[in-house]
Design brief:
Elements lengths: L1 E3 L8 H29 L8 H13 L7 E5 L3 E5 L9 H9 L1 H16 L7 H20 L2 H5 L4 H11 L5 H4 L4 E4 L2 H32 L5 H38 L1 E3 H12 L1 H12 L1 H10 L3 H4 L17
Helix pairs in contact: 1-2, 1-11, 1-12, 1-13, 2-4, 2-12, 4-9, 10-11, 10-12, 12-13
Length: about 325
């Protein structure tokens, strides 16, 4: 077991907070631009996806801001949280919920594509009711997924002893701070998050598989409509996949410490800062990958030579092509 703490600036709470606050200042204008583009500049052809796109974007904005506390997910899955000297621990449940709702938001985007492209009864009252029930179940589970962990928190004096045993390099002023505590236990946390992940990913795989099969195998629609649907679906997949990769790289490092027993405070800080940047990447990808959003964004920045070529003759699109 290796625990590295050099007691330098890059391992300090001050550096971590400064980095996150600086990132926040840089992200805010980009996020506001994203909200404006979705609400005001979404074309009619993408009208069906406007709300899911906005919801996922807002979730991307909120989720990174929930990583202000130090979080150590180490050694057999024990979750230790240092909430910071100036943070209110009572807000932790709200922050965890904001992190959890990212899964249902992504699910809603792919369900939206499945509903309006594959389902023939997409606009019936019964179908709308079923979708509403599905959304309620997803967000309700996201709300309560870690509730068992919070209801089964160990005695924090014992938790601090466990922390010192597993992370002996941590300074005592962190371990003994009132806002340093352990959530649940290794088995309970693994079961809760594992089942929630299976629940979310099963839905995503189902909706993606059904939609891909429809848009790439169905021959009953025009070639132009099929191309538009395929192009938009690819763009949605890229929009979600790229930020997901940004999350996975630092997450893999943090989780690897569970099995390698090599903990480095500086690397953990940089990993969490990288995790916080995924919302910025998600917004930039969204604004660039979708042609209508890209065109309007370039107009705002006055980059005319890139969007002038988009002003071509208007082509009439069949009603079925507007199911975006």
């Amino acid at each position: 077991m290796s625990c590295t703490f050099r007691n330098n600036y890059f391992e300090s709470e001050e550096f971590f907070k400064l980095a996150l606050h600086s990132l926040f200042v840089f992200q805010v204008p980009i996020h506001i631009l994203g909200v404006y583009i979705i609400i005001m500049k979404t074309p009619n052809e993408m009208g069906k996806t406007k709300f899911p796109m906005l919801l996922m974007h807002l979730t991307n904005i909120c989720s990174p801001k929930t990583c202000i506390p130090y979080l150590f997910w180490l050694f057999y899955g024990n979750t230790f949280i240092y909430w910071g000297a100036h943070m209110d621990p009572r807000l932790l449940r709200t922050h965890i919920f904001l992190l959890s709702v990212f899964g249902p938001a992504v699910t809603m985007v792919f369900e939206n594509r499945y509903n309006y492209l594959v389902r023939l009864d997409c606009d019936t009252h019964s179908r709308r009711f079923k979708r509403a029930v599905n959304f309620f179940i997803n967000y309700f589970i996201a709300l309560i997924v870690l509730l068992p962990s919070f209801l089964n928190m160990p005695d924090q004096s014992v938790a601090r002893q466990i922390a010192l045993k597993k992370l002996p390099c941590l300074p005592l002023d962190i371990v003994n701070h009132p806002t340093f505590f352990m959530v649940g236990n290794e088995h309970l946390n693994f079961v809760c998050t594992g089942l929630f992940g299976i629940f979310i990913w099963t839905q995503i795989f189902f909706f993606v598989a059904k939609t891909v099969k429809f848009i790439f195998q169905t021959k009953s629609q025009s070639q132009q409509t099929a191309q538009l649907q395929r192009k938009f679906f690819r763009a949605v997949c890229i929009q979600i996949t790229f930020p997901f990769v940004v999350i996975m790289i630092p997450s893999c490092y943090i989780l690897s410490t569970t099995y390698t027993y090599n903990y480095d405070m500086a690397f953990t800080n940089f990993s969490l800062i990288s995790l916080n940047s995924h919302g910025l990447f998600a917004t930039i990808i969204m604004l660039l990958i979708h042609k209508p959003y890209r065109t309007e964004t370039l107009k705002i920045f006055g980059i005319k030579k890139f969007y002038k070529s988009n002003k071509v003759a208007v082509v009439r699109i069949s009603p079925s092509a507007t199911n975006f």
